[in-house]
């Protein structure tokens, strides 16, 4: 086979292996920073920065904020937000000196963790194993029954991750560092206790780390979930003051024939009436970004599926090859991870110490991500559950991005697909959204950032001015009230009658806003339509804009009947450009089509008028013709002049070559291309010593440049 055919076949094979993302989800509406259609409330104090930690009081009346060198308590039931108390908490001199001696800068000494007890009290701490030494190190913490569970770094160098329990009456426990329970580059993202205060409840930690069980040419990061039992008491000789119930498993989040989303950024828990049915939502990205394109995904995991993996087979590392394989031997009884709360034998503890990694992986509940967004990197997620008018509960996800935006998305189709309702630009200049706190009873989100705290209402129903807008939004927080003819929040009223309309699954006004027997209209009676009249001068160029009220709609123009429309206007989705003339006068309308519903978004009346200095249509045509004639004449004259110059430049050469015979004069030698050694008249011997022509006159005559005999007297 030729080489080029082999190369072509290899290229086609590589192209077939390239990942292909599904069609990108697009937010229906985007609100830019400062847009009056999406009002935000801000709180900030002078000389206070990094509002990183947010904790809500149980009655949701007070917001506690951990900032740099300060702890704030804010009254959030008032408008604007009111400062209740400010407690300065700077680092002391001895701590600063100690940190600087360990190669830390002063800017890295102002951060701390601020966990909350179930009763709402705040714990401030900066001890070892309780908070990270470096603010760049991610950590997680949760307080259960007075015990503090943390996942953090245990040294200044940031290569000793640890899951720690302390502060309470139970024995302090931590992970074993010498057996690789946690790899040195572990990054913690969340910790949860779904079962609550039951004696055999478990604590789950989510983190990223470099995998060791796979052989790759480069380091591969995987997402993990680890589990420890709340009633763990540690071992006596083996695993003394160490966890005896520690297990970890891999989380997967991927699309078919695509690079996996293997880096976990954040996790949120959706509680259910039955704790065993709780669902974890994880925000992922991939470490392989083809062509520099970023993408994010949201995968959900059911607690029952996680427990099935933890109750399954283990992996075991081969001592000789260091490879990890499925363990096929006898499992100790009780098995590793059992929450029996008693003491274990040394034999069982040694087995538990070596068998902490599960063989199976935890797959997403839907088998694939519920949301995939291209060119966006999500950083945080918060969850809310909303009961619709029909009685169904819908999960709403609030997703922060690394560019300072917030996406509000709803899960549909029994949690198998998503719809991004809106996009809000929160922060400018852009910075990552690092903290989102949901206050469901109050109906707001609190977002901490470098310069303050933002309060974002969950619902924004007043922006939808008609039934059609309200239904097309597919926002579970909003429904159309036919009685009051307004789009209203479903949480604001307890009594929602038959006049309340919603269609979250399809968002089709044709089947929702029109009752049986009601004539259908193409334009919403209360929808905001852009209306303008233009009286423009003849032959001016006019641009008519088509406002895009929804990024999910397709737009088209309805224009007057024109004799030659391609010569008088240019049509695009977002604009119509026309030349104002008598034959372009009329009504121009822009229409949108979304969810099988067509509605008008703008219409313009265009009328040409005579203006000082403007040219009437007939005169304009004559002037255009004269200009065309002038340009054509000038072009012809220019071409003729160039041709004349060319002919004149070769005149001498043509005259010299037209001679029947030529002599070896200096000029004829230059013009002659012949290399004959003997002329055709045979009068010369070819040695070049004699002239080639013999004059007919006297031998003493001279020849001019044209071979004419010149007599010399």
Automatic annotation (TrEMBL):
MF (Gene Ontology): semaphorin receptor binding
InterPro entries in UniProt: Ig-like_fold, Plexin_repeat, PSI, Semap_dom, Semap_dom_sf, Semaphorin, WD40/YVTN_repeat-like_dom_sf
GO cellular component, one term: membrane
Domain of life: Eukaryota
Keyword annotations of the record: Disulfide bond, Glycoprotein, Membrane, Signal, Transmembrane, Transmembrane helix
Signal peptide limits: 1-23
Tagged with keyword Membrane: yes
Compartments, as annotated in UniProt: Membrane
Domain Sema: 28-458
Regions that span the bilayer: 628-650
Similarity-based family: Belongs to the semaphorin family.
The protein's name in its UniProt record: Sema domain-containing protein
Originating species: Xenopus tropicalis
């Amino acid at each position: 086979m030729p080489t080029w055919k082999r190369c072509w076949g290899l290229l086609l094979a590589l192209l077939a292996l390239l990942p292909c993302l599904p069609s990108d989800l697009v937010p229906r509406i985007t609100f830019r920073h400062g847009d009056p259609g999406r009002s935000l409330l801000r709180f900030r104090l002078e000389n206070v920065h990094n509002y990183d930690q947010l904790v809500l009081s149980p009655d949701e009346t007070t917001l506690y904020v951990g900032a740099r060198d300060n702890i704030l308590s804010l009254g959030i039931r008032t408008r604007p937000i009111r400062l209740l108390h400010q407690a300065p908490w700077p680092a002391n001199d001895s701590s600063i000196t100690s940190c600087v001696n360990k190669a830390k800068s002063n800017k890295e000494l102002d951060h701390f963790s601020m966990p909350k007890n179930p009763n709402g009290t705040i714990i401030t701490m900066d001890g070892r194993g309780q908070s990270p030494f470096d603010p760049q190190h991610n950590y997680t913490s949760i307080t259960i029954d007075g015990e503090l569970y943390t996942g953090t770094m245990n040294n200044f160098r940031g290569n000793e991750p640890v899951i720690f329990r302390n502060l309470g009456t139970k024995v302090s426990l931590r992970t074993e560092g010498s057996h690789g329970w946690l790899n040195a580059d572990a990054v913690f993202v969340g910790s949860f206790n779904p079962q609550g205060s039951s004696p055999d409840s478990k604590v789950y930690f989510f983190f990223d780390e470099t995998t060791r069980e796979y052989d790759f040419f480069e380091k591969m990061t995987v997402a993990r979930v680890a589990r420890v039992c709340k009633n763990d008491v540690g071992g006596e000789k083996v695993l003394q003051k160490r966890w005896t119930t520690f297990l970890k498993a891999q989380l997967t989040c991927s699309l078919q024939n695509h690079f996996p989303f293997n880096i976990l950024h954040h996790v949120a828990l959706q509680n259910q009436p039955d704790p065993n049915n709780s669902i974890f939502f994880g925000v992922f990205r991939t470490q392989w970004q083809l062509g520099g394109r970023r993408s994010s995904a949201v995968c959900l995991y059911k607690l029952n599926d996680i427990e099935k993996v933890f109750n399954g087979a283990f992996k075991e590392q081969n001592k000789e090859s260091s490879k990890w394989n499925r363990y096929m031997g006898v499992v100790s009884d009780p098995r590793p991870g059992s929450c029996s709360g008693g003491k274990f034998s040394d034999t069982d503890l040694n087995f538990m110490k070596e068998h902490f990694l599960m063989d199976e992986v935890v797959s997403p509940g839907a088998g694939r991500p519920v949301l995939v967004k291209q060119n966006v990197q999500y950083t945080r997620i918060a969850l809310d559950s909303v009961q619709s008018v029909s009685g169904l509960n819908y999960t709403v996800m609030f997703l922060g991005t690394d560019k300072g935006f917030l996406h509000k998305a709803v899960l549909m189709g029994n949690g198998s697909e998503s719809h991004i309702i809106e996009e809000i630009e929160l922060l400018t200049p852009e910075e990552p959204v690092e903290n989102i706190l949901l206050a469901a009873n109050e109906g707001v989100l609190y977002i901490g950032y470098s310069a303050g705290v933002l309060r974002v209402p969950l619902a924004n129903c007043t922006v939808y001015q008609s039934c059609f807008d309200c239904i097309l939004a597919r926002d579970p927080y909003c429904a159309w009230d036919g009685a009051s003819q307004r789009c209203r929040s479903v949480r604001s009223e307890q009594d929602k009658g038959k006049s309340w309309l919603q269609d979250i699954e399809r968002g089709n006004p044709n089947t929702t806003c029109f009752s049986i027997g009601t004539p259908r209209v193409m334009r919403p009676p209360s929808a905001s339509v852009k209306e303008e009249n233009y009286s423009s001068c003849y032959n001016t160029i006019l641009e008519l804009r088509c406002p895009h009220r929804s990024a999910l709609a397709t737009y088209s123009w309805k224009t007057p009947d024109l004799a030659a429309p391609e010569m008088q206007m240019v049509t695009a989705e977002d604009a119509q450009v026309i030349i104002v003339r008598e034959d372009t006068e009329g009504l121009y309308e822009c229409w949108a089509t979304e969810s099988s519903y067509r509605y008008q978004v703008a219409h313009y009346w265009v009328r040409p008028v005579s203006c000082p200095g403007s040219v009437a249509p007939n005169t304009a045509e004559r002037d255009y013709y004269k200009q065309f004639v002038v340009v054509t004449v000038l072009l012809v004259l220019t071409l003729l002049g160039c041709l004349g110059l060319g002919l004149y430049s070769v005149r001498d050469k043509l005259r010299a070559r037209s001679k029947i015979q030529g002599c070896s004069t200096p000029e004829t030698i230059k013009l002659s291309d012949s290399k004959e050694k003997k002329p055709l008249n045979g009068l010369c011997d070819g040695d070049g010593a004699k002239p080639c022509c013999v004059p007919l006159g006297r031998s003493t005559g001279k020849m001019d440049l044209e071979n004419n005999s010149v007599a010399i007297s």
